[in-house]
Amino acid sequence: MMRLKLLLSHPSVPVMLGAVGLGLAILLMQGATWQWGFVVLGVGLQMLNEYGLHRYIFHLKPPRRQWAFDLLYQAHYGHHDFPTNHQLFFAPIWVALPMLAVNFAVIYGLLWMVVPLHALSLAAAIVLVGGVATFLGYEWFHMTAHLNVSKTRVERHVTQLHNQHHFRDFSKWFHVSPGGEVIDRAMGTAIDREALKRQQRIEFIRTLGMSPDDPRLVAARLRFAQRYDLSTEDIARAARG
């Protein structure tokens, strides 16, 4: 119940639940039985989207310009800086909603060129139901990985791999959703047990390998301290590494 309350407290989650509801309504009203099978395609595409966004956007090399750094700090760097801060667990609404809009527009546009009569219902199945439901699953598992709570076997597995991303090698294990490790293995971003034994942990505890007192990090922490409830002690501790 505590996890559900925390999940629903994030602004984008109720909107995404509404998107799933809209997709189901479109399928029920306009979709044929066979079109429900495309929900599975949406699951797979969203897992690829999750990997690509995390690896290639959220883990961009830290920009020199502070305004660009601050955007990425809100999107993801801050989560690596303060991995137990509840307000930094979730994708910001200004990331989630544009991604939803772009994904729907692209899929709908492609389908309209091929099967215009079914474009809306198929896009609803792929993006609004399969894709958004998978995104909400990602948010649940990611939140759970960072909480000290009783976990299912699947949640423990996700937590183990995600902890390796945070505290062993931030350039590996970009998936979070269960089953996404297949993508990491295919893309060469998995770590094996022997590699873990050789890994110098201290370099990866730091935020994306940056010095803990990097001026960009210090400026971002101060700027967003009130928004993320960062105390003076939290900021001072982070600067010490």
From TrEMBL:
What are the record keywords, sorted?
Answer: Membrane, Transmembrane, Transmembrane helix
Report what the protein is called: Fatty acid hydroxylase
Which InterPro entries does the entry link to?
Fatty_acid_hydroxylase
Q: List this protein's GO terms for biological process.
A: lipid biosynthetic process
* Molecular function in Gene Ontology: iron ion binding; oxidoreductase activity
Q: What residue stretches are annotated with the Fatty acid hydroxylase domain?
A: 39-189
Q: Which regions span the lipid bilayer?
A: 12-30, 88-111, 117-141
Coiled-coil ranges from the UniProt annotation: none
Query: Origin, by domain of life?
Result: Bacteria
One matching Pfam family is: FA_hydroxylase
